UniProtKB/TrEMBL annotation:
This is beta-glucosidase. Its EC number is 3.2.1.21. It catalyses: Hydrolysis of terminal, non-reducing beta-D-glucosyl residues with release of beta-D-glucose. Transmembrane segments: none annotated. Keywords: Glycosidase, Hydrolase, Signal. InterPro entries: Cellulose_Degrad_GH3, Fn3-like, GH, Glyco_hydro_3_AS, Glyco_hydro_3_C, Glyco_hydro_3_C_sf, Glyco_hydro_3_N, Glyco_hydro_3_N_sf. It comes from Pseudoxanthomonas winnipegensis. Belongs to the glycosyl hydrolase 3 family. Gene3D superfamilies: Glycoside hydrolase family 3 C-terminal domain (3.40.50.1700), Glycoside hydrolase, family 3, N-terminal domain (3.20.20.300), Immunoglobulins (2.60.40.10). Residues 681-750 form the Fibronectin type III-like domain.
């Protein structure tokens, strides 16, 4: 990787156009100066009075000694500590904070212990608040399907409010890793495959977690865009695996959501577990210092992932723990999570001269500055109010969970308008392992949830139906294994019903950390159940539970309707029923492409054309870029999602089709709802650069707009394209843009033609 810094001034000179810089889209911007907060004088004074051990303590974060079972199970067991030992460590000034406790009394006890330490530096309480706290919202991938960043902001705000109420200052979220290989289990935590959607969701979530009133607000928690960087590029979709990504791809694809998060004000980030092209992120000076701090002016805190510094040994990059601590701190990791290597080795590394005191002081300053920004020096107990009225699972928060749930449901197909179902006069058989598994509605990374036992689809249906006795619920099989007599029971229920709803897919344990799969299909036993039920001839609606894109080539043709239900959280059942029974139409779109077969992954819509593109994907042409058994296209592309309306696209207007270098091009289209139900459409703008000095993707999303249309109504949607929207990372690894011809589409998804035109970018 080349090691150069590009300053804003250099870019201006290079591009020769001041307008270009001001137009840089967030993702490709070179980072703007943060709020420029100066270090308060008392921090330098404090650092001057700290011992080396106290300094190392401020850079040491450990798992809370008091954790519930789910939180404890979220990470491998390592360096556990007894409650009394942890309190003693805090009193001795050897701990900066703890993570993954939700117990406000414990937080109070530890903060009181910190106030008994020599320098009384407040503790920091962190947690994995990924998609809700006690109220569980849809998994982030599901919520990304809403194509509604404002919704993501609101759920993050609500989660922050609940978490802060028990003393949590810092969330290890949002996860902003672009994920293009559906085998990787952690795609569920992010916003999918697309850079633009990823950027918008990252910014929205940071705004939501941190709030609008500054980090010192008692209801703000500081955000941590993670995992920096390219964790989602793991080879083979295998978690923790090697990534080998060019600097161009890093800058074009993996960096932008982080930049968006930092531009939105995130003051922390987490170094990822993986290596990038031979250098582990946790020891990657180029990444953590040259780029993050040098180019982007990031002034916040970099924390390692859980034992990430210690894992440099297993990577074969560090000789031992001491070497690992040295490499991590020198690369720019300010805070060590869980290994305790900084506490153990930093003092002697400084004494031996291997690490300069200034390097340690710099990291300590960043940590203390963060604590100051969070208002902890003013009032260490500002978020710790055990006797305050509960902020957990307030009615409005649960209502938001229901809104988020229904807005995350994607309708993939709806033959003969089998959906929406009727709430009365229709006998329904609800079949499948997800029918009444409330535990799976939570999805992975729910460590602190409240009572969600009523969140399953069966309960939602019983509450929705006018006559719940018309509903029969049968599991039919397990997620991976048959149940004795299950198929027969399911078939009998289907025969007795007018319509079958099959709740099938993955269990919550199939996605998340270390949950990579070799195949991304619905397990065979469930497909067999579907076959048996479909053979009754009854209309079948499949409601999928899933934490990733699924290959539905075999499954989809067997159902009249297919809904993607992800894991929708505390109000999963009711949110699904809002859509199933038509109180609200489906309004979400796929944030990841659903390929035809598992073997197509990694599959993403904005791939390159190659030198031998496949002109007729439906037929097997020789010597073309396709598989022998399947075209290289998605079964349900990125951006796809149907409504209960009938949308028509027309009236494309791109003016004179000329985009001046310092101007704008307005693209307009008229969308009409020719159906008989109101519907929400996500109108998408895609662009393709025909010829460039770097090969460009077949399509790239440049903007989207969600509109609601009553039956018979039309609306004109307007997009503005500027030169900066067409930037890419050039041969010199700097953002560049080249005049020439571009294709433009206004379309309901990627990979469909929609409305097509061309325009010229003038030089
Ligand atoms: C490891 C995960 O990679 C990270 O996302 C999480 O925040 C930490 N564990 C702490 O639980």
């Amino acid at each position: 990787m080349t090691q150069h810094r590009i300053t804003r001034r250099q870019l201006l000179t290079a591009a020769g156009a001041a307008t270009l810089l001001s137009q840089l889209p967030m993702g490709l911007a070179l980072g703007r100066a943060r709020d420029g907060a100066k270090t308060p004088a008392f921090i330098d004074d404090l650092i001057g009075r700290m011992s080396l051990v106290e300094k190392a303590g401020q850079l040491t974060l450990m798992a809370s000694a008091s954790q519930n079972g789910a939180a404890a199970a979220a990470n491998p067991i390592s360096n556990t500590s007894a409650v009394s030992a942890q309190v003693a460590a805090v009193k001795a000034g050897q701990l900066t904070g703890v993570f993954n406790s939700s117990n406000v009394l414990w937080h109070e006890r530890l903060q009181k212990a910190a106030m008994q330490s020599r320098l009384k530096i407040p503790m920091l309480f962190a947690a994995d608040v990924i998609h809700g706290f006690t109220t569980v919202f849809p998994v982030p991938l599901g919520e990304a399907a809403s194509f509604e960043p404002e919704l993501a902001r609101r759920t993050a705000r609500a989660a922050a409010m609940e978490a802060a109420a028990v003393g949590i200052d810092w969330t290890f979220a949002p996860m902003v890793d672009i994920a293009r290989d559906a085998r990787w289990g952690r795609g569920v935590e992010g916003s999918g495959e697309d850079v633009l959607l990823g950027r918008r969701m990252a910014a929205a979530r940071v705004h939501g977690f941190q709030g609008e009133r500054g980090l010192a607000d008692p209801e703000a928690v500081v955000a941590c865009p993670k995992h920096f960087c390219a964790y989602g590029a793991a080879e083979g979709g295998l978690d923790y695996n090697t990534t080998d990504v060019s600097e161009r791809v890093l800058r074009q694809t993996y960096f932008p959501p982080f930049q968006a998060g930092f531009d939105a004000g995130a003051m922390t980030t987490m170094a990822s577990f993986n290596e990038i092209s031979g250098i582990p992120a946790t020891a990657n000076h180029w990444l953590l210092d040259d780029v993050l701090r040098g180019e982007w002016d990031f002034t916040g805190v970099v924390v390692s992932d859980y034992t990430g510094d210690e894992e440099l040994i297993a990577h074969g990059f560090a000789r031992d723990g001491r070497d690992a601590a040295r490499l991590a701190i020198l690369a720019g990791v300010d805070m060590s999570m869980q290994s305790a290597l900084y506490l153990k080795h930093l003092p002697s590394l400084v004494e031996s001269g291997e690490v300069r005191m200034a390097v340690v002081d710099r990291s300590v300053r960043r940590v203390l500055q963060l604590k100051a920004q969070l208002g902890l020096f003013d009032d260490p107990f500002r978020r710790i109010k055990p006797s305050a009225p509960s902020r957990q699972r307030l009615p409005e928060t649960l209502e938001l969970a229901r809104e988020a749930a229904r807005k995350s449901v994607v309708l993939l197909k709806n033959e003969d308008d089998v959906l929406p179902l009727r709430t009365s006069g229709q006998r329904i058989a609800l079949i499948g392992p997800l029918a009444q598994d409330w535990d799976s509605t939570k999805g992975p990374w729910t460590l602190f949830e409240g009572d969600d036992t009523g969140s399953d689809l069966a309960t939602g249906m019983k509450q929705t139906l006018a006559d719940p006795s018309l509903l029969q619920v049968v599991a039919g099989c397990g997620y991976q294994k048959p149940l004795a007599g299950g198929v027969q029971e399911a078939v009998a229920a289907a025969r007795a019903a007018d319509v079958v709803v099959m709740a099938i897919g993955e269990s919550r344990d199939d996605s998340g950390e270390a949950r990579s799969r070799t195949s991304i299909t619905v397990p065979q036993v469930q497909q067999d159940l579907l076959d048996a039920v479909a053979a009754t001839g009854k209309p079948v609606v499949v409601v999928l539970g899933n934490g990733r894109a699924l290959a539905l080539g075999k499954l989809a043709p067997k159902a009249q309707a297919v809904l993607v239900g992800w894991y929708l959280g505390s109000r999963s059942g009711l949110g699904l029923c809002d859509v199933l029974f038509g109180a609200h139409g489906p309004s979400a779109r796929l944030p990841v492409s659903f390929p035809r077969e598992s073997g197509q992954v990694p599959y993403y819509y904005d791939h390159k054309t190659t030198g031998r593109p496949d002109p007729e994907p439906e037929k097997l042409s020789p010597f073309k870029t396709r598989y022998m058994t399947a075209p290289n296209s998605a079964l349900f592309p990125f951006g796809h999602g149907l409504t209960y309306g009938r949308m028509e696209y027309g009236g494309l207007d791109i003016g004179d089709g000329r985009l001046p270098a310092d101007g704008a091009l307005t693209v307009r289209a008229t969308i009409s709802n020719r159906g008989s139900r109101a519907a929400e459409e996500v109108v998408q703008l895609y662009v393709h650069d025909r010829v460039a000095s770097i090969t460009r993707p077949v399509q790239e999303l440049k903007d989207f707009r969600k509109i609601r249309l009553e039956p018979g109504a039309s609306a004109q949607v307007e997009f503005t394209l500027r030169r900066a929207d067409l930037l890419f990372i050039g041969q010199d690894l700097k953002p560049t843009v080249e005049p020439g011809l571009f294709d433009v589409w206004v379309a309901p998804s990627a990979e469909v033609d929609g409305l097509h035109g061309t325009f010229e970018l003038l030089g």
